[in-house]
Structures are given as C-alpha cells and as structure tokens.
Design a protein that fits this description.
single chain; alpha/beta; Rossmann fold; 5-stranded mixed barrel; 8 helices; 25% strand
Amino acid sequence: MSPRAAATSEADQLAALVEDLRAREVGACELAIVLGSGLGVLAERVEDARVVDYTELAAMPRSSVPGHAGKLVVGRLAGVRVVLQQGRVHLYEGFGYHEATRAVRAFASLGIIKLVLTNAAGSLRLAWNPGTLMRIEDHLDLQGKVRLARKQAANGSPWDKRLGAALDAAARHVDVALERGVYAALLGPSYETPAEIRMLRTFGADAVGMSTVAEAQAAWAAGMRVAGVSCLTNHAAGVTDSVPNHEEVVEEGRKASKRFCDLLEAAAPRL
C-alpha cells in the first residue's frame, strides 16, 4: 500500500484527494455539482466527458447506497467547465463529518468557488407531489454533526441568494416549475415517523432528507458559494397514506430527470 493510501489524518486524506483531483484537471472546473439519489443522469448532458471512478481516488469515500454511482464526471455543461459528483456518502452509513464533506472541501481547495448540492427528499406539503423540484432557501440541521469554528458559523445560512436567483431565472427560461422552501436534514437511515413529520412542519420545514447540510456548511466555511435543489420523490410519512421506501425515491428521481437536467443545464451558465 502506498504511503498516500495509508494516510490516517484528515489533513493527509484531504491533501491526497486534492492531489489526485488536480492530476485529473478538476481544478480547472468553474462549477461543482453533487448529484443525489437517482439524479446522476445529468452526466449524460456533459460534453467531452471524462469519468473518474472513486476507486481511482485513494482518499475518496465510497457509498454503498443504490442510486449513488461513485464516479466523478469532468467536462462541459452548456459550455461551463464542471465536475459532477455522482453519489455522496452519508452520515448514516457510518461515515464521519470529515468523510462526508471531504469531496466538497477538496473542490474548495482546488479553487472551485461555486457549488450546487442536489438530493432526493420527502415532501412535507400535500400539494407538492413526487417529482416536484424545490430550491433550498434555508435548512434545519437536525443531524448535530457539523463542526465549524465560531467565526465560520457567525453569518448564518450558507445558501447564496444570488445563486438561488440564477436557479430561479433558469427555471423560468426552460419552463420548469421550481418551488422554494426549507430543507430539514435528519440522520436516518430510517424514514421519519408521522409524529416527526408533524414536528418538522411545525418547525417550518418543507422537505426532509438525510444529506446535504453538512456539505453546505463545510463548503461555505471553505469560501464556496452554495445553492441547492431537492427532487421531492415521495410524500413524507403521514402526509398521505403511502409508506416511503428507497426504491420509490430512485424511481421518482428517474421520472423527474428530464426536468431536473433541463434546469441544471440552463442554470450552469447563469451560475
């Protein structure tokens, strides 16, 4: 095993990932997009694409969750040099905060300034049916795992209003409905109970999931500008009589993929 692969400290692991990504010209990218469950199809829109499997990156954590391919795609999306992260790791898989945020921190270290985080989430609004797209305006962090210094956390929300407005403009341009709301992040891996969903609605949440917030906070602390889009793949428990399951999440993400891809492709030059 190489010394790099055997590195144990987080600083060493991050440095190793940055070195590997730089060697694959990821540092030349202007925009990074993290693709959630079932949303990796955006990679099909990338021109001059080069695919990097996570197994080629010694310090890149790999997910075992279906719908997360475990690949980086580097190329051009609507003329913009991008890196797409097909799949993320989750805290509920047993990964720590540093592992869950290592990729976005590496992007920041390479000088990539803008980040779009996407996810599959449950809808807390009866009128927002599966397939609805929601821009994240703010979040509730109920995971309790974010580790930011006081000076990094002083300015509140990481969600960039100008990038959000760019997503809104792109949605209008391609005639894709884009709702706006608050994303609640829970640890998982089990889906929420109806009682927990009632609590979240009282708190002001519009969607619920198990990812994204740690990445948003870490990227923002590292100097990135952050935007987010949730694909609402199911109604959360108790909103309807249906029972959430991961197969439904992936399938509804697939069904919404054209509108999702149209939105992100139109947004790339605006971001």
